[in-house]
Amino acid sequence: MNCESRKLPDLTPAFLLTRTEGSKNRFLASLHDHLRDDGVLLSKTTSLQFSSESPTGPIACDLLPVLYGSESEIPDEGNCSIFRERCRSDGGFRGYESSSNGDLTAGVDFDSNAYFSNLKTEVLGNTVIFAEVVTTTMTLFDRLMFLAPKENGLAAIARQQTAGRGRGGNAWISPPGCAMFSLHTRIPLMSRLGQKPPFLQHLMSLAVVEGARSIPGYENIDLRLKWPNDIYYGSHVKLGGVIVNSTVMGGDMHCVIGCGVNVENSVPTCCINDLVRQHNTTFDTSLTPLTCDEVIARSITKLEQLIGAFQDKGCEEVLPLYYARWLHSGVKVSIADQGLLDATIEGLDDYGYLSVSTKHGQRLSVQPDGNSFDMLHNLITLKVQ
After folding, report:
1. pLDDT > 80? residue 383
2. Nearest-angstrom CA–CA distance, 346 and 273
3. Which of 129, 90, 97 is nearest to 111 (CA)?
């Protein structure tokens, strides 16, 4: 592992991408009355400046330009980067290419063909804000999610984050090769999922695993689920995780789901494509490596399907598949905040909490928020803030 310090990559503008030009125009029209004269949608965290013209200076961490024009160029000034928007001949989209930080962001594409061809949703993920480098995708919807039409299904995708968010306020630098995205979804409070919101992070984790394993030929790629919100290879190598923030307004719970999973970067542990290559070697197959955009689109598609199944028939409709992918059925654990109480994992309870039973037959529920699971020692502990 290379532990040398490296300069953080420069923040870059974002692009607004939709399935059709009409959808983009309707989305922008819905924001019109809420924008300042300079196109800024103010927010307490990251304000968004919608524009058809490229910015002329460095990108600030609290103001993200969102470009919706077809052609733009940033001059060689400001943060000493050369950025240029490029549209590929195959219909894909090439973002801004930075030459100021070596190869950290240079030459990275957003493949809109791969994304939208793999996105089979009615709503989720239909409107994309894509940036090469942002602080975090989790703050981009703080105000936007209350204004955008329901049918737009917002997703924010980045190639790198300089302050990615995790549970308990953790932050990290996200390297290239990870599928990193945030997704907005509305859950009616009186619906089945609205009454059991902890299940949403479980559905998202399952959607990532199923998004890959449901591809013909990839069924035996050993992606698993670790409670409460992690994606694993086998039982000891973490490949990704999920975080959910929610806000209630009116009769809806507005949820921003953040997800990061290592698709193409073999450092410092391994990635999904390492598992694909291992499968090819072991079983003499020729599976092609997956791309971040493909994984993101398939994950969002699976999430919409899982939410639909949950809303129609309840948790019983999705738990058999969840248990088939998770690592914990029948595992003996110790619960630290119960005085190292020995227990056996039974599954998830009716509200999405971890259900365990003691040797005396007592059933306990462990909340996902505030707890972590040390699988090496089979120990559930309060998460240190």
Report:
1. no
2. 32
3. 90
The mean pLDDT value of the chain amounts to 84
Q: Is the peptide bond before 228 cis (omega within 30 degrees of 0)?
A: yes
User: Among all chains, which residue has been given the structure tokens 């997800």?
Assistant: 259
Task: Determine how β-strand 47-51 pairs with β-strand 63-67.
Answer: parallel
Quick: pLDDT tens for 117-164. Answer: 999 999 999 999 999 999 999 999 999 999 999 888 999 999 999 875
Class of residue 330 by CB neighbours under 10 A (exposed 0-12, middle 13-18, buried 19+): exposed
Cα–Cα nearest to 368, from 240, 254, 227, 196: 227
**Among the ranges 84-98, 119-133, 369-383, which has the highest mean pLDDT value?**
119-133
Look at residue 308 and give its three-state secondary structure.
helix
Nearest to 66 by CA among 40, 91, 42, 86: 40
Is residue 274 a contact partner of residue 283, using CB atoms and an 8 Å limit?
Answer: no
83, with CB counted inside 10 A (0-12, 13-18, 19+), is buried
